[in-house]
Amino acid sequence: MLVASVVVSATTSGAASHKTGWGQGAPYLALGDSVAFGYTPPQTTPAATYADAANFSSYANDVAAALNLHLFNASCPGETTASMINVTAASNGCENAPGQTAGYRTAYPLHVSYTGSQLSYAVHFLRTHPATRLVTIDIGANDAFLCQETTTDGCLSLSEFGAVLKEIGTNLAIIYHALRVEGRYSGALVAVDYYALNYSQPLQVAESQQLDATINAVTRQFHGIIANGFGMFQAAATPFGGDPCAAGLLVAYPASSNLTGCNIHPSPLGHELLATTIETALLNVAPPLAARVARRGRG
What we know:
CATH architecture: 3-Layer(aba) Sandwich
Structural class: alpha/beta
Radius of gyration: 18 Å
Strand content: 5-15%
CATH class: Alpha Beta
CATH topology: Rossmann fold
Largest sheet: 5 strands, parallel
Number of domains: 1
């Protein structure tokens, strides 16, 4: 396994402990994969739960509540950077999955309903909601997972993993360009970078850092903010030998599942930690951007 989460360089604070007036009820668009969605695996989740997306909550819900924003969450479990742009591209469970022709979107509802790609929805949303104050995104981990699942060596060769990183960078630039130019969005754009699943395993750490470096470099090119999910999880996991599972940051498998340890997705505590990184960074660096968006919305 490689990685599993996401957004802005900051230090923990009490930002998530109280609601502020920062957002003034303005729209907040959350984009990305299963982490932004708040997905939990079937071993921990009753089957009927998937029929209502409101049963799933993520860091985006925490951010919206803390900063007084109106959340529109367009994320999709299993989304890759390619399938976010084009629904016919390979995904890791959103539109399709290896060996399958249908994905999560076919079987279950998302938080918001739309046809076409997640990016098309995002551009349309931003054009029709010019007062949008915040966009967050976590995307790219499923590209790596897909490579692991479809290569004989689990995407361990430098050439294979390097090709994945190059594709992520190319696709992410397309995504950001569409948000900024086609969506006419000049406000706060926060990329949540991915945590390692175990900080005591050098290979996982190295791959996570390479993935995050790719995401962060492109994000900065488009004047985005980086939420240091990698660093935040690492700090919280350090007292537990570098294990986010032992620290309670990942969804734990119940004994009845015959699985041990944790799933790759954040627990409620993990989502709270990611939300705090976003909130702190926004309160520190984004007010001028937010004010500009608000003025444009009134004009």
